[in-house]
């Protein structure tokens, strides 16, 4: 359905009423741009009981609606920007359910709120249960060279609420921080947790972010979905996550004590507050040697005890350590010696990953040797922390993969209790993804790859894997990064149970995703209950590292042979780079319903061009309206029930 009000018209926001009718807000142009709201019936026709045959507009100044919401009483609120004098400021318009301006709201149905910086704009609006209106957006100087997050609340009289902020207003300057996520967990309710390091000027903190099932930050977690933990003296960071069955969260990594690093573990309640029943005020600091101690991996055993794997500088070199903590954060004296086990085979040993077998035995994987000349190291411990003599050489397996540098960064136990590790292998000139499978006795499995392992990559690029999953059908998924020239992108690889690349997964078993304008790295992933795959890591956006999270829908992960041809669907965009208009061209293998969306560098949907619309077999051409979008890098995503393909797009 196409609706023409005046020429031109733009829609920026949409909201659904409780009766199923849809309110759309944006702008329309005659002499000036005006706020416009239109209401559609359930069948998509204009609602003649609203405004003028379904359309209500507000003038005469230049105004554009960017957000809309509906109050509990059915009144409709809009915000965006309105030119007032020489600068744009933030209006709030209130309409009655019939589309008429509400005279009880500021006397004429609208107000304009300004901030001291010079110009401002509203981008989101809501009505609190007490009827007060809250608007969020930004405030900038007149040159727009600096800006701040803006927030204001209107009182019962439609004026800025003096009980909120300063004269009803709050502005926040976001810090320029480097944020990298190293660990990911999916809670039983489907919410996704990321943990890593957030730093300013090289000094980091443990950081967590939680996203709701729709990908938005969970505002009920920490502060606006984020938690930062300032631990120790100086630098700190998180490498591992674990979630208890009751939703409580454990995050582990390191914190500086003024001389070196100690293992740091924090316990959090489901809302992101520190769990004071864990450790001291929610924190545990542990040191096993005289130098650096770092936690790299964590797992909860069947009894709810926390297992931690990592490294400690003991004596003259670095040793692998595995420790166990009771539910209250105390070291468990029944495990190893005084709660921990160390491993020294004559070199530097580090555990980067850990997994638990179904019988409670513990697998730790990492590397032994010196930098650029390391071997993959896998150890197995009994449940009490003693090395398992039935595995490898007295509990230790050092994998012989020839000369070069070989490191395991992730490990998983498959349904047959075989151990699968991934990481990277290097010959000094080129890095490739490494995947190896061990039999239950710790020897390389000759039925996998070439003598138990595979190296995946290209001489023209470097690749590394940081996380691994084994699906019920035995296929192995790994994620990490690919570096071409000086740019890194997310990399996903899937191999068949025999180690060969899986041709039913995207193109020849591999897919890369370009998120930001700089380096993108995937560090962790997890399968959701619906089969979708969530991948977390970091992406450079506007010059700094940000947490990055992407989701692959179930059909794109569980491709079968019949879907392989669909994955090669060409999706092109011209021109690229583009300005306010571009054209997408694609060829469909059959008539089907598709969705075409534009995602920004953070993965948020910023434009929907097609929503479950039927398109014929063969070539389709779609015009992409990009006006109003900021310059930058975007992803154009084409999806059906059977597949999903994406293409990068740069807007100037």
CATH fold-level topology of the domain at 9-172 = Neuraminidase
Question: Radius of gyration over alpha carbons?
Answer: 28 Å
Q: Largest sheet at a glance?
A: 4 strands, antiparallel
Beta-strand percentage range? over 45%
Terminal residue distance:
30 Å
Number of strands: 46
| Structural class label | mainly beta
Shape: globular
Total number of helical segments? 2
What's the average pLDDT?
84
What is the CATH domain class of the domain at 9-172? Mainly Beta
Low-confidence stretches: 1-8, 554-568
Q: Biggest sheet: strands side by side, in what order?
A: 1-2-3-4
Question: So, CATH architecture of the domain at 9-172?
Answer: 6 Propeller
Helix content: under 10%
Summarize the structure in words:
By secondary structure, this protein is mainly beta. Among the domains are: 9-172, 6 Propeller (Neuraminidase), CATH 2.120.10; 471-559, no CATH class; 566-651, Immunoglobulin-like, CATH 2.60.40. 1% of the residues lie in helices and 54% in strands. The chain is globular.
